[in-house]
Amino acid sequence: MDSKTQQLVDSGLMLPLMEEFYTIQGEGYHTGTAAYFIRIGGCDVGCHWCDVKESWDSNLHPPTLTKEIVQRAKSYSNIAVITGGEPLMWDMKSLTNSLQNKNVKTHIETSGAYNLSGSWDWICLSPKKLKLPLTEVYQEANELKIIIYNKSDFKFAEEQAAKVNKNCQLFLQAEWSNKDKMTPQIIDYVMQNPKWKISIQTHKHLNIP
């Protein structure tokens, strides 16, 4: 990457774009809502069950002008979901400000492990044990989504729920490869602890991106 491109990436005027697509939000609070997904490359959290490991190395994904990403998003939807990878590894201010200036709502899906940049209409925080969220992200989160891979994750979920603001929506979601084992346990847990809701990866059941 030449120095000029690097400067644009550092400022958020270009971003390592892995993919972008218009689809239905399959998880969490906004399940069933049409949205334009913008997947940014780069992540060092390293979850062993991650289903988009190809996003981890940002060098594999070409720096793309942010203004071009915004133009495409606007042509499809009034909601843009920024995901990754870990999008907060990059400066999100230019992307989110430009989207909002075009009346596109900005949603993010993040581990919260990096400083919160950008202006967000909805923050979905999905903490990971290997690299915990920063305090500021806990306080700003609209939605807490905990991935349940094994029984110990219920304890982790409660630890994380104790750190978010009182208005944050709480969701438990079975890790896809272990869903048959963990979903019945999640159902029982939510019935005993109704502050939680169940998030289902409906897009995978519907065979859509």
Automatic annotation (TrEMBL):
<comment type="similarity">
    <text>Belongs to the radical SAM superfamily. 7-carboxy-7-deazaguanine synthase family.</text>
</comment>
<feature type="binding site">
    <location>
        <position position="39"/>
    </location>
    <ligand>
        <name>substrate</name>
    </ligand>
</feature>
<comment type="subunit">
    <text>Homodimer.</text>
</comment>
<feature type="binding site">
    <location>
        <position position="85"/>
    </location>
    <ligand>
        <name>S-adenosyl-L-methionine</name>
    </ligand>
</feature>
<keyword id="KW-0671">Queuosine biosynthesis</keyword>
<feature type="binding site">
    <location>
        <position position="83"/>
    </location>
    <ligand>
        <name>substrate</name>
    </ligand>
</feature>
<keyword id="KW-0460">Magnesium</keyword>
<feature type="binding site">
    <location>
        <begin position="126"/>
        <end position="128"/>
    </location>
    <ligand>
        <name>S-adenosyl-L-methionine</name>
    </ligand>
</feature>
<keyword id="KW-0479">Metal-binding</keyword>
<feature type="binding site">
    <location>
        <begin position="49"/>
        <end position="51"/>
    </location>
    <ligand>
        <name>S-adenosyl-L-methionine</name>
    </ligand>
</feature>
<feature type="binding site">
    <location>
        <position position="209"/>
    </location>
    <ligand>
        <name>substrate</name>
    </ligand>
</feature>
<feature type="binding site">
    <location>
        <position position="43"/>
    </location>
    <ligand>
        <name>[4Fe-4S] cluster</name>
    </ligand>
</feature>
<dbReference type="InterPro" id="IPR013785">
    <property type="entry name" value="Aldolase_TIM"/>
</dbReference>
<keyword id="KW-0456">Lyase</keyword>
<keyword id="KW-0411">Iron-sulfur</keyword>
<keyword id="KW-0004">4Fe-4S</keyword>
<protein>
    <recommendedName>
        <fullName>7-carboxy-7-deazaguanine synthase</fullName>
        <ecNumber>4.3.99.3</ecNumber>
    </recommendedName>
</protein>
<feature type="domain" description="Radical SAM core">
    <location>
        <begin position="30"/>
        <end position="209"/>
    </location>
</feature>
<dbReference type="InterPro" id="IPR007197">
    <property type="entry name" value="rSAM"/>
</dbReference>
<feature type="binding site">
    <location>
        <position position="47"/>
    </location>
    <ligand>
        <name>[4Fe-4S] cluster</name>
    </ligand>
</feature>
<comment type="function">
    <text>Catalyzes the complex heterocyclic radical-mediated conversion of 6-carboxy-5,6,7,8-tetrahydropterin (CPH4) to 7-carboxy-7-deazaguanine (CDG), a step common to the biosynthetic pathways of all 7-deazapurine-containing compounds.</text>
</comment>
<keyword id="KW-0949">S-adenosyl-L-methionine</keyword>
<dbReference type="InterPro" id="IPR058240">
    <property type="entry name" value="rSAM_sf"/>
</dbReference>
<dbReference type="Pfam" id="PF04055">
    <property type="entry name" value="Radical_SAM"/>
</dbReference>
<keyword id="KW-0408">Iron</keyword>
<feature type="binding site">
    <location>
        <position position="50"/>
    </location>
    <ligand>
        <name>[4Fe-4S] cluster</name>
    </ligand>
</feature>
<dbReference type="InterPro" id="IPR024924">
    <property type="entry name" value="7-CO-7-deazaguanine_synth-like"/>
</dbReference>
<comment type="pathway">
    <text>Purine metabolism; 7-cyano-7-deazaguanine biosynthesis.</text>
</comment>
<feature type="binding site">
    <location>
        <begin position="24"/>
        <end position="26"/>
    </location>
    <ligand>
        <name>substrate</name>
    </ligand>
</feature>
